From TrEMBL:
Coiled coil: none annotated. It comes from Salinirubellus salinus. InterPro entries: Glyas_Bleomycin-R_OHBP_Dase (IPR029068), Glyas_Fos-R_dOase_dom (IPR004360), VOC_core (IPR037523). Gene3D superfamilies: 2,3-Dihydroxybiphenyl 1,2-Dioxygenase, domain 1. Residues 17-127 form the VOC domain. The lineage of its organism: Archaea, Methanobacteriati, Methanobacteriota, Stenosarchaea group, Halobacteria. This is VOC family protein. It comes from the Archaea. Pfam families: Glyoxalase (PF00903).
Amino acid sequence: MAERPYEVADGAEFYPMALFPQLAVSDTERSTAWYERLGFEPVFAYGETVHLRYATGADLMLVGRGAPTGAGAGVTVYVNASEPLEDVFERLRTTGGTAEEPTETPYNTRELRLRDPDGYQFVFSEPVDTDRSFDEVLGGA
């Protein structure tokens, strides 16, 4: 039997996704390593295409066709963090990633803004007070 030209992670689950961002990257290996430091895990790889997953339904496809000029301009990928923001920030800080300190927003969240090696902006978010209702946060109650 011929060897498969692709790799699938052990136990990988495949399911339809309502939204599946694909990012053009200049170096698939470098970008994959960067996203792995954030907590993404490879699901599938085929040539210069890598499917990564942060959590169920939070997937990215990296496509190695070279980042277009001005990559990331006007694009922000918003991620509900599955771990404390300080952990993500510390991993990036010690590995040379570009990130700002987590900040609190008026919307009952703390956000960590960062950029990947091709300039795409990501915002990892966590709730500040999980007991506050939507109306309380927006001043309606």
